Amino acid sequence: MSLLDGTPVQKAVFAFFVALSLVGLALAFADKFDRFGTPNVGWMLDGQTISPTHGDASEAGLRGGGRILRINGLDVSAAALRGQTTGPNVVTDIGATNTITMRSASGELREITIAVRPWEWDDFVFTQGATDVIALLFLFVGVTVFLLRPYETPSWALLSLCSVVGGTLLTGFVPIDEAHGWNADYFFFVVGLVPYVPFHMLLAFPVVHPLLVRRPGVLWWVYGAGALQAAANLAGAGAGFEGVFAYARNISAGVLLIGLGAFTFRCARLAVHRADPLVAQRARILLAGVVVGLMPFGLVQFARETFGALEIDSRFLTWPVAVFVLALARVTLRPALMNARIAVRKAVLYTAAVAILSVVAFLLVSVRPYAVGALLFPLLYFWPRFEARLNSRLYPQRARFAELLRDVGTDLAAAVTVPDVLDVAALAPARLCDARSTVAFLLPGAVDDREHSRAAGVVPGGAVPIEAEPIVQLVRATRRDVLRAQLAVEPQYVNVRAECEAGFDRLGATLLVPLVHEQRVVGGLAVGARKSNDPYEQADVDALAAAGQQAVQAVMRVAATERLVAREREFADLKRYFPPQIIDQVMARGGAAELGSQRKLVTVLFADLRGFTSFSDTVEPEEVISTLDEYHCAMGARIAEYEGTLERFAGDGFMVFFNDPVDQPDHVERAAQMALAMRADVERLRAKWTRKGYGIHAGMGIHTGYATCGFIGYEGRRDYAVIGNVTNLAARLSDFAGPGEIIISARSFGELDGRFVAESTGELHLKGFQQPQSAFRLLAMAAVSGPA
Q1: pTM, whole model, 2 decimals?
Q2: Rounded to whole angstroms, how far apart are CA atoms 372 and 370?
Q3: Residue 107 CB contacts under 8 Å (≥ 6 apart), including other chains
Q4: Beta bridge partners of 112
Q5: Terminus-to-terminus CA distance in the chain, angstroms?
Q6: DSSP secondary structure letter of residue 395
Q7: Residues facing residue 712 across a β-bridge
Q8: CA atoms within 13 A on the CB side of 646
Q9: Is the pLDDT at 394 greater than 70, yes or no?
């Protein structure tokens, strides 16, 4: 799914979070440009906590944290300082000094004199540099992850967290007095949302909570509460509402602590979830992130706002929060976690290589600065070889994928039967990825009407066909490989998770790779765990898919050979299979050659379902297939009854023609009668569909004209079809037909000679036809008059 595929509401919400980030960024940069050159008194207040704003203040003894008591000998109260960035009675003349009395976080009393000097860029870096970098990291991670996996539940939670927290960090040091109304409004709005973001994370991580699956609207309630909190902050921050503001801050700190506690508890509970190792691994990563990064921040905020304790500079808590957002990005972007053992080894080796290169570069700089440039030339030559050698050592089989795939292809080329092909395919995963077991299977319809399967290292259980397994039906509908580990962490599997896990158990598999031929799944490779118990990575899945496609081509080759032999036997023994009246016509024209291309007058009927696209987008793939089976069975019975020739079924549509290869003088009447019978059948099916809430109906088009009839295609894949303008007009009439309508061309209706009731549609302007076309809406057969 791409960013452009979202609904208008989804796009609007995404734009809101991005705009929230950009506004915070703009306010932060605007504040820096406004302050540059203005007096910098040397400290900043966060509530009562005092922090230095330039290096001179820090060297004078002012350290982050502690509570301010007096400024220039005047006592100050907590109420007077709350929400301010500079204290009262401050001398702001350039070159003047101020004396502050403070109690440090350890309880020590200090009296410090700090000179006032203009703001410089170094002061911004000293005061806000780390916070701004972390805020930009938040915004980058949130937007990047969302662009990589747009509109997914974890991506929404991460985007919300990064936008709100990033905006708070960016504007945490901007002035929020009456002279800076925009700053105050923005800051109090995002601060109001912060306590409610953990509830979004609680519902989205480590796996999607069942409540969010059943009631997605719960997020509107969560952020609605956040909007009310923001409104309370904005109202309480106004003049005369200091008590309301303090109360709102206390509620905000309490809600934040409750949300973080609930999220921590869920991560801790899932961290010991042994039934799903991937869920447990994700939960442990997030548990470490929330304990190290978020929980200290929540505890400090609650203690400061509620009890006035823990006078700690909030900037000290910013870096751990960045650790948590990186943990979130990790589990969001990589559900199938990488093998930790190999990842650590690779990281150590890369670090060692970079360290050696850094030492060499330092030595070269100390001797000759330009010698560092000379280092680039051998580096460009040797580094790709170092990378290739490292991968060959860490992934020995992956380095031989090309060779192993050639060997698999050679064995497949030597196979002469479908079971032989499946035997080679079942052994391929063990050769490529050290898989413990594999079941290679072909679905009915791939080569014949039977299911074929061969296993290596496992005996599939169960009495039902493999094609009946929900996991196989899911892969058949999506044409994508599925890892068992994804079932526990991806929300799209939540409704079929138990059934799919049962299918994996039956096949002894952890990975199911589809075998695809002409955009249709014809089978699969159910691959078991690796002997090393390492997870399958994308490179492994790609190699298995390549081996599977080689097997598909081998199956098609074998099947084509078998069909060719069967066809030769069929035509050699033609008289045993065809009725005499057809045999006479075929033999009179030279036997099987009679079924070659010829030009004939035919009547063509097109039909397809109205509303099928929206229907298929709103129901499960299994239900779509079941509904199409009902429809096709009913239509197929009518085609056989009226002896029509079915050219093809294409999803919800099909094309039937009459008067070829057998002559049918009443071909127009047959087409009209079949269309009316099919419409009646669809009406009966619609009674059942309507009860299920399916708004689908059929529309049909009929036209008579000359066309070229015969086989088309190539050896092993041929169809008997009609080619000509008659098919185009019939298709356009079908497109024009509304639900339950049968549109018949003027030529076809004229051939019926009044035996059917119809009404004129007028002149139709159809796509692909320059001249308007006369047509009629076929209603019913004409009533037969009895004797007087």
Answers
A1: 0.52
A2: 5
A3: none
A4: 100
A5: 70
A6: -
A7: 719
A8: 17
A9: no
Q: Which two tokens stand for residue 449?
A: 């009407």
pLDDT at 281 over 80: no
**Token pair belonging to 590:** 């030279």
Quickly list DSSP for 217-282: THHHHHHHHHHHHHHHHHHHTSTT-HHHHHHHHHHHHHHHHHHHHHHHHHHHHHHT-TT-HHHHHH
Q: Is 721 helix (H, G, I), strand (E, B) or coil?
A: strand
Please give the distance of CA 639 from its chain centroid, rounded to a whole number.
Answer: 41
Between CA 404 and CA 162 the distance in angstroms is 45
**Which amino acid does the sequence have at 385?**
R
- Per-residue pLDDT tens over the stretch 331-388: 665 544 444 455 555 656 666 766 676 666 666 655 555 555 566 666 666 666 666 6
Per-residue HEC secondary structure of 539-608 comes to HHHHHHHHHHHHHHHHHHHHHHHHHHHHHHHHHHCHHHCCCHHHHHHHHHCCHHHHHCCEEEEEEEEEEE
328 touches 158 (CB < 8 A): yes
pLDDT range class, residue 775, cuts 50, 70, 90: very high
Whether 630 has a pLDDT exceeding 50, the answer reads yes
Q: Which residue has the tokens 């010698």?
A: 371
The C-alpha angle 351, 352, 356, rounded to 5 degrees, equals: 115
Residues 184, 162: Cα–Cα separation, whole Å: 20
Measured CA to CA in angstroms, residue 39 lies from 64, 118, 581, 658 at distances of: 20, 4, 107, 93
Q: From CA 269, how far away is CA 287, in angstroms rounded?
A: 10
